[in-house]
Amino acid sequence: MGLRAIERDKGVHHTTVIYWLKQIGDQLPDAPPTTEIPSVGELDELETFVGSKKTKSGCGRL
To answer: Rounded to whole angstroms, how far apart are CA atoms 42 and 9?
Structure first.
């Protein structure tokens, strides 16, 4: 679920959701060091959306 969907579902502002995530993230342990290179990677949905846009600015102009 994305930040805006959580915002709509819980009835709070999306910056509140971000604040909650930061609070929980501070409580998580650090990731253990690894020497392996993962065989699978994941891109953020926003990154893939921006990368697939056909225009570079508004109204179809370059």
So the answer is: 26
Asked if the structure places residue 52 within a domain, the reply is no
Instruction: State which residues form the domain around 13.
Output: 1-28
In a domain, 9, yes or no: yes
How many structural domains is the chain composed of?
1
Q: What's the pLDDT at 51?
A: 55
**CA dihedral sign of residues 51, 56, 60, 62:** negative
Please write the tens of the pLDDT for every residue from 1-51: 888 899 999 999 989 999 999 999 999 998 888 888 878 887 666 544 555
